[in-house]
Amino acid sequence: MGEDIKLFGKWSFDVKVEDPGLERYINLTPKIIPKSCGRHAKYQFHKSKMNIVERLITHLMVPGHKSKKHVLTSGRVVGRWQTTYKIVEKAFDKIHEITGKNPLEVFVRAIENSAVREEIAAYQVGGIIVRKAVVTSPQRRVDLALRHIAQAAYRKAFGKKTNMVDALVDEIVGAYNNDASKSDSVRDKERIEKEAEGAR
Question: For the segment 34-92, what is each residue's pLDDT rounded down to a tens digit?
């Protein structure tokens, strides 16, 4: 029965997660409309039970502000589920046109390519702050990848001629190709890992 269920009625969920560390945390449970109505919101780590496309939609609804001084606010996009749902649906159609592949597979590879493996933790020893490289947990890797993809797409569309659908397509396809020149999320990942390497 699950094999007949397709995302947006078009795309198969028959996608394999190639990164073994992320396999448990990228949920590809077949759903036509990826919406759980907040049933996992009460529990801290139950977000991994949400479909990965639903998690992308929720991140796009609140991409997050840029810098501590709120240089770029995302308040205008909060809570518009139907609008964001249509953006993701149109973006997946365009991804299929560009790559000729299942857009869900392209999206999963984009997450794998932009998932940070190592980052910096800062802690205080006496009167100084020490920065140390730490391995990022699998759940946080998925969280950060989704956040970076959503924020990068929002930055590309905010106050620009590019619309949100095209910005999201550019970001996901760039991350799928692991191209740091076209994908801000891959660039962020490389920057964070480089900093962590210097703090070892």
Answer: 888 888 888 888 888 889 999 999 999 988 877 777 777 878 788 788 999 999 999 99
| CA distance linking residue 119 with residue 167, whole number of Å | 27
pLDDT of residue 3: 56
Domain that holds residue 105: 2-198
Residue that is written with structure tokens 């801290």 in the block: 44
CATH code of the domain containing 174: 1.10.455.10
Burial of 186 (0-12, 13-18, 19+ CB in 10 A): buried
Cα–Cα dist 122/81, whole Å: 36
Domain count, the chain: 1
- Provide the 8-state DSSP code for 160: S
